[in-house]
Amino acid sequence: MSREPRSVSTDHVRVVRAGHGANCSSIGSVIDTLFLTALSGGAVFAAIAAALSEEPIHMTPGSGASSEPSEPPTAPTGSGEQGS
Which of 41, 14, 40 is nearest to 25 (CA)? Predict the structure, then answer.
């Protein structure tokens, strides 16, 4: 193989594509596209979840829930040994 640059005639070029993976028709370009699509979908999902998490929760009377905050559960007292 020669190390000298060769000139390319326009008669020998069918199509020149621009962009990521432009002149490569390998499976790598498909995998890149699928990865970027999944990444974009995850970002949209995270944005929607973050937007919905800021909405305050309102309790309506009669829903069966107490308006008083409940006490946190207490730890059982004892020596910690299982029965004998």
Answer: 14
